[in-house]
Amino acid sequence: MTPPATAAVALRGVSRTYGTGPAAVRAVDRVDLDFRRGTWTAVMGPSGSGKSTLLHCAAGLERVDAGQVLLGDTDIGTAGDAELTALRRERIGFVFQSFNLLGALTAEQNVALPLRLAGRRPSRSEVRAVLAAVGLADRARHRPRELSGGQQQRVAIARAMVTRPDVLFADEPTGALDSTTARTVLGLLRAVVDGGQTIVMVTHDPAAAAHADGVVFLRDGRVVDRLAGASARDVADRLVTLER
Prior knowledge:
Organism: Pseudonocardia xinjiangensis
CATH class: Alpha Beta
CATH topology: Rossmann fold
Number of helices: 8
Protein name: ABC transporter ATP-binding protein
Keywords: ATP-binding, Nucleotide-binding, Transport
Mean pLDDT: 92
CATH architecture: 3-Layer(aba) Sandwich
Strand order of the largest sheet: 6-7-8-3-9-10
GO molecular function: ATP binding
Domain ABC transporter: 9-243
């Protein structure tokens, strides 16, 4: 198991159950898992395997029923609501498949929003530098409806990056994109990791997973396999065996 000092996020015996009694579903079942600093991990599995729930628990978006979620040395599970909100705002970035941009705000205003919510007054140059990093320096004044799907996703990534979070979580970041745009977004994420960032990504796409440093496979809420440096074919073949 990875030593805690090298883990950006560590899960220790984490479980998450929905419902009670006979109808209860354990979406995540006693998972022990480390996500190392400066790496990109893809989380995959059949539908209903618990991958999105795992991501939400690791990012502090959902409380766990048992176990620990450690963000560095911070136990997310023991954090109060105010502390947890601050952690999500300052140390965690989250990229949603649906982008979740505010339609009334421009690209630069959407990117600046997390900083403003943290009580900061970001400079225009600071925000535009992040937009430039995702190739959108010339779209700063555009609103989401004036941007393509790929451009909106890049704004969402810039918004998640602007606080320089410890970890960037991405839930199906290419799921709503065409293949060409998806490759652009995956190339951007690769550059982010190569710059020292940590990324944890849920995806159903073997081609997307092949861009990551490693792949974790779930089934019935449990980690059942891992691959490192795998090709898209390797990932696809492993998924087929899990779905049998």
